[in-house]
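Handout, tutorial session.
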Amino acid sequence: MISPGLLERPPMAPRDRPPAPPSSTRTGRIRVNGEEHHVALASERNLLIVLREELGLTGTKYGCGEGECGACKVLLDGVAVRACQTPVGEAVGHEVTTIEGLARGEELHPVQQAFLEAGAFQCGFCTPGMIVAVASLLRRLPEPSDDEIRAALDGNICRCGGYLRILDAVHRASRTLAASPGGG
């Protein structure tokens, strides 16, 4: 039998806010999805950890932690970057957009909508990184060929093998953006 005393633990501190950075740590402001945030800029801190653990933006996934899988991609001034390999200090003065920041209220971004319509995900783990990478691609190349899509998604791994549906989703999003006022 387990002693009742072994089951009792002191209450844990609420995790609503991360602890304040040590006074010796440099701090700065980063803009994420249109909102300013004050964060510690210690050299060992990467953007992924800040987004997930401090800001609660868990749509950006921790995959390999080595920049190989693409699950952690976010937009930095509209360009897809691997958040696990980006020191948080590099985001100061730039606009960071995560998967959560692509939608406008209840309206999905055209790339998100295209992924949904094409069924371009199975487990969904790679999906945020893929969507962010595609949004970046279509911003600079509105009508990409299959080869251009493959090149842009090189480094984004779908372990379920849904690549054909992902290609379909990219073409759907491209057509939607081309048909929208202002082209996206």
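The second record follows below. Compare its token runs with those of the first.
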Amino acid sequence: MNRALQHREATVPDARDRQRPVTARRIVTRVSLAALVTLTALTAAVRHGAAQDSRPAILDSVGFDQHIGRALPLDIPFRDASGAPVQLGDYFVDKPVLLVPAYYECPMLCGLVLNGVVSTLRTLAFDVGREFTVVTFSISPSETPHQAAAKKAEFLSKYRRQGSENGWHFLTGSAASIRQLTDAIGFRYERDDATGQYAHASGIVVATPDGRLSHYFYGVEYPPRDLRLALVEASDSRLGSPVDQLLLFCFQYDPTTGRYSRPAMRAMRLGGAATVMGLGAFVMIMLRRERSGKRTRRM
């Protein structure tokens, strides 16, 4: 039996012997994981660098610069959706104007811009053609009034308000006319000769009735409240309600973000005014109570 125990003790490894290979295995695993993480980070860095190096040079000249306060050249010639010759100034009479640069055969971005515009306009109480005008113009000189008419029909059917056909215009023009207008609003774009498509930014511009640029909104979605306030402000407060005037007093357009925000100083002034009014009301109430108390004691 002692021999059996001795044999068993000889075949069963000591606990310390079992721990050594486990510890070594953990070290190998940790080293392997560290190497994998390092390799992954290096690969990502290489890919990021390659992506930056492979950025199309055409995008270097694409952008949307703000020219707030600039007067538009209203004598630029275009053609409307029926093919009739018009001038940009024909749409600047007594209403603010929303300018939408796009091109009608754009495979993606322009459709998103126009869908964003019509989505926002449908939420506004203001009607296109009644309170304001929309002018969409193609940046491609090869596009025709027929294409403009098709695009106009498409988006008027999405807007679904009577009379808007007289207030939402889709224009085409020559290369010189397009370039003159895009330079005026700061819209920089380039044509890719290989694909025939245009690299361009996305956004819309609000102009005053006399043709001065007043507000820019970037991207493909436009906050209804901000666009409404921009139209009210561009109309010199001829549009809107007393609530709009209060909002314009409380909020201020920020050109860097394309949104209306509450300025800190104005908020402090409003808070101070509210405090003074509250104290005044409190003093008046206390004085009335004191007078009524004196009258009661005399009686």
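Points raised in discussion: The chain has two domains: 2-53, 63-261.
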